[in-house]
Write a structure and sequence with these properties.
Strands 1-9-3-6-5 form a five-stranded mixed sheet, covered by helices on one side. Strands 10-11-12-17-15 form a five-stranded antiparallel sheet. The protein is mainly beta and 280 residues long. It folds into two domains: 101 residues, Sandwich (Immunoglobulin-like); 122 residues, Immunoglobulin-like, CATH 2.60.40.1150. It is elongated. A hairpin with a 2-residue loop joins strand 7 and strand 8. The protein has three helices and 19 strands. The longest helix is centred in the middle third of the chain and has 12 residues.
Length: 280
């Protein structure tokens, strides 16, 4: 089992693709003599392959390892992992996918329609009490609140995300509006226990490349949000949104933002690195 996990980690360095929530039925290319690793958001409860004679499947933790034994053909595979389900077509090909990451199908709930009086007060909330906590959010000017609300209504696929013990932390948008930077994040709790956010910390890292193509840190700076708005408790099988406001930052293609979401009284910490070029 240990060898299998080490093998998965090694393959991840060679090649990786991501399966977005908008493409839950897709073709995954496999090849005889190669192992394709499928990384699920949580430990799969059910993995079923149509043709078990020509395709072998092994699971451990969040990993599904697929190896074909035939030279030609295809089959279907179904994966059930918690609230997530994926319908996949395995296709034998000369150009295999060595690693495929399945992203959560869960989407943050739609923005709650607020009465005009509340909208004027500057509330940005979501349904079921799982939205952004109003803690001085009225200090954001109405024009900017309208821009942020539009991004909340149209979350995009999780280009940058990290998972730990059935909890997913993802960054949806990093938007520069006038002189401030707004970061909209999502926490998806697919576990059976609440996830309590103890703190979220940010670090700006600048790197430079040498003539040998190696990277070296030239700057490391803690970033302190000018404002943060979120509900710190994400109940089991629910989604929470987080909004952070920063003073204007000068990011470049050499910049990386390290985000650490730490669980209060728990070990499910989530660390994510986002390139500075992600700013919209």
């Amino acid at each position: 089992m240990t060898r299998f996990i080490s093998f998965c980690a090694g393959i991840g360095l060679l090649c990786g693709t991501t399966m977005s929530a908008d493409a839950q039925q897709r073709i995954i290319r496999v090849k005889p003599g190669f192992a394709t690793v499928i990384v699920c958001p949580g430990a799969p409860e059910l993995v079923s392959v149509g043709n078990s004679q020509d395709f072998t499947v092994q699971t451990t933790g969040n990993y599904v390892l697929v190896k074909p034994v035939a030279a030609h053909g295809s089959t279907n595979m179904f994966i059930k992992a918690g609230m997530e389900s994926y319908n996949i077509v395995l296709q034998i090909s000369d150009t295999p996918d060595l690693e495929v990451r399945l992203l959560p199908t869960a989407r943050p709930p739609a923005v709650k329609e607020e009465p005009a009086a509340k909208a004027a007060a500057g509330e940005i909330g979501l349904k079921n009490g799982e939205g952004i906590r109003d803690r001085g959010i009225d200090q954001i000017n109405p024009k900017t609140r309208a821009v942020i609300a539009s991004y909340i209504k149209t979350p995009r696929p999780y280009t940058h995300s990290v998972a730990n013990s059935s909890v997913v932390f993802a960054i949806d948008h990093l938007v520069q509006v006038e002189k401030q930077l707004y970061m909209l994040c999502t926490v998806i709790n697919n576990s059976k226990i609440p996830y309590d956010i103890g703190y979220v910390r940010f670090k700006l890292i600048e790197q430079s490349s040498s003539f040998l193509f190696s990277k070296k840190k030239t700057k490391e700076l803690e970033l302190e949000p000018a404002g943060e708005f979120y509900n710190p408790t994400i109940k089991p099988n629910t989604t929470g949104r987080l909004l952070f406001v920063f003073d204007k930052q000068g990011f470049s293609n050499k910049s990386t933002i390290e985000i650490k979401c730490s669980e209060e009284n728990g070990r499910r910490d989530l660390v994510l690195n986002v390139p500075g070029s992600y700013v919209e």
